[in-house]
Specification:
mainly alpha; 0% strand; elongated; disordered N terminus; disordered C terminus
């Protein structure tokens, strides 16, 4: 049937060409001259060939393009529909679409990437059309076969590859197509993308990481090298012999189009023009493919009989599983009860914290108003036992939340954890009292540090210091992450950003000799200057691993956080002194 279809298409094109050629001198020259195709394939790049066709309707140039990219398009179509005959029709439609849009494609277009994307969209449209003709059937007697051997890499990756590719942006997708689908060297990939070889390498590696993360979310764990090898070795399948000639002929002669081909072309052009095609289309295509496969399996009596026999063999095991399921359901009910209790406790704690915070704020305002010229508001607070107790409770809640991961990491007992948090509160209180009294120095907090050393031991104290050093950066990162809703940070990007913040903080730390509690305004101004320098350093480092949109979000987050810090320092200055706060 395939050979008959191709033969009919070629015959129609031949007759149309003889009747439609404008120049008598060219009427006897076949449009598929091998010599012209070979010449163009070896001397012209894709866009030169496309321009030749668009400006002069050069059939030889178009045939060269088809011969060059037929395997790429056919393979993408075959993966989507899993039917050679349908894949041929989709391939033909893709090149018809290319012929129609030849004039509209800009010089900077990566043609192989454009053809791959068009093939995927055309196949998706084809599947959706086919599904409208199928009756809805919901039953499927399919059960996983136990103890199956681990499938090969491509067996796991292949069915999901095009869905994964749909998640990439255009440049990343073009990089994968050029590098692994077409096997081009990095230099040629960079030339096609308008970038250097190093930039192309970075682009390819990042795109490969995104694909690996996609498969990981679907339970497929695979090193980047293995994934690259699987794609490079299996993504391109040879198209059937004669398909290139048939496709090229039908693409440049509209009289050869079948009704189904015209429908596919119309749908493909419409989908390419849409700006909202993305993840939803890839998911829809995958779901439709699964539905088609289920439809085919449900009609095969032999497979159904084998599955029923397997179910009969597993019946005894199923009875045992019912008892286990009952136990699981009971545990789930208990867990739900525990979760509700925990949630109630969480709400009670939140209410208590809010009450303490409101009480602290009211007391602070009252003390600050009454302080007048007697001294700083903070000094007046420390004279009020209720205020001190409220401050300690507030500080304790914050410290418990911040250091909870370390307590778990150190595997402290409940009594040890209580002692640990008490020492942290004591250490913080000592620092505040010293700063308020103007006696802040290197020996502040040493008594608490000695007790911590005794409680945690050498190894535990080392973990405590390391955790404390990174606490500010980790807290800042958590605040930043809330602003990346449109362009979320990957786990790798979060770790890189955390390291950049740590490096910037270490390089912009205030010299101990500059700490002068008697001149808080100067000390705070210096601290803000160092923070601005650190922010700039983080932005410069982040430019190498964040996208432009993510980098802009980071800069905005830094500016907002810096404004909050300045406001906080202004309030602190008012608390520590009775002099007017600086700007």
């Amino acid at each position: 049937m395939r050979k008959s279809l191709i033969s009919n298409v070629i015959l129609i094109i031949q007759r149309f060409s003889e009747a439609a050629r404008p120049s008598p001198t060219k009427s006897n020259v076949p449009f598929w001259r091998t010599a012209d195709i070979i010449k163009w394939m070896h001397t012209s790049d894709d866009m030169q060939l496309l321009q030749e066709y668009a400006s002069g309707r050069s059939e030889a140039a178009f045939n060269a393009l088809v011969s060059r990219h037929i395997n790429l398009v056919y393979s993408a179509a075959l993966r989507s529909v899993n039917n050679p005959s349908q894949a041929e029709e989709i391939t033909q439609s893709v090149f018809v679409t290319l012929a129609r849009k030849a004039r509209a494609l800009g010089r900077g277009t990566v043609l192989s990437g454009w053809l791959y994307q068009t093939a995927r969209l055309t196949a998706s449209n084809f599947i959706r059309t086919e599904m409208r003709r199928l009756h809805r059937e919901q039953q499927a007697h399919i059960q996983s076969t136990m103890n199956e051997p681990e499938p090969e890499a491509w067996t796991r990756v292949g069915p999901l590859l095009d869905e994964a590719m749909a998640q990439l942006n255009e440049k990343d997708r073009n990089a994968i197509v050029l590098r692994f689908f077409e096997g081009k060297p990095l230099k040629e990939v960079g030339d096609a993308l308008g970038a250097s070889e190093d930039a192309a390498k970075m682009r390819v590696n990042r795109a490969l990481d995104k694909l690996r993360e996609f498969f990981l979310r679907r339970g497929i764990t695979m090193p980047a090298g293995a994934l690259a090898a699987a794609i490079a070795d299996n993504s391109i399948q040879a198209a059937p012999a004669g398909l290139a000639a048939a496709v090229a002929a039908s693409a440049v002669q509209s009289s050869a189009f079948t009704v189904s081909t015209l429908t596919l072309v119309k749908g493909a052009i419409s989908m390419i023009s849409s700006t909202k095609i993305g993840v939803a289309l890839g998911v829809c295509a995958a779901a439709v493919i699964v539905a088609l496969q289920y439809q085919q399996l449900s009609t095969q009596k032999q497979i159904v009989q084998q599955l029923e026999a397997k179910v009969a063999q597993l019946a005894p095991q199923a009875q045992k599983n019912q008892a286990l399921q009952a136990q699981i359901e009971k545990l789930q009910e208990q867990n739900a009860a525990y979760a509700k209790t925990a949630e109630d406790m969480k709400r009670d704690v939140a209410k208590a914290r809010a009450h303490a915070s409101d009480a602290l704020a009211a007391k602070t305002a009252a003390v600050a108003k009454a302080a007048g010229k007697k001294g700083s508001a903070l000094s007046e607070m420390f004279k009020d036992p209720d205020m001190v107790a409220a401050m300690i409770e507030q500080q304790g809640s914050m410290l418990k939340m911040q250091y909870a991961p370390l307590v778990k990491q150190l595997n402290l007992s409940p009594d040890q954890a209580d002692t640990f948090f008490k020492l942290l509160i004591d250490r913080t209180s000592q620092g505040m009292e010293a700063l308020q009294s103007g006696k802040f120095g290197a020996d502040v907090g040493k008594p608490a540090d000695a007790e911590l050393q005794s409680l945690l031991g050498d190894a535990g104290m080392t973990q405590y210091k390391t955790f404390t050093e990174g606490l500010a950066d980790q807290t800042m990162l958590s605040l930043y992450k809330n602003n990346f809703t449109d362009n979320p940070l990957s786990d790798a990007q979060q770790q890189q950003l955390l390291q950049a913040m740590k490096t910037a903080r270490q390089n912009n730390t205030m010299d101990p000799s500059q700490i002068n509690p008697s001149d808080l305004q100067a000390m705070m101004s210096k601290q803000m200057q160092l923070q601005e320098q650190a922010n700039q350093s983080v932005l410069e480092q982040a430019a190498s691993f964040l996208s432009p949109d993510q980098l802009q979000t980071l800069g905005t987050s830094q500016s907002n956080m810096l404004g909050m810090q300045k406001f906080g320092m202004t309030m602190a200055q008012k608390m520590f002194t009775n002099a007017p706060a600086g700007p």
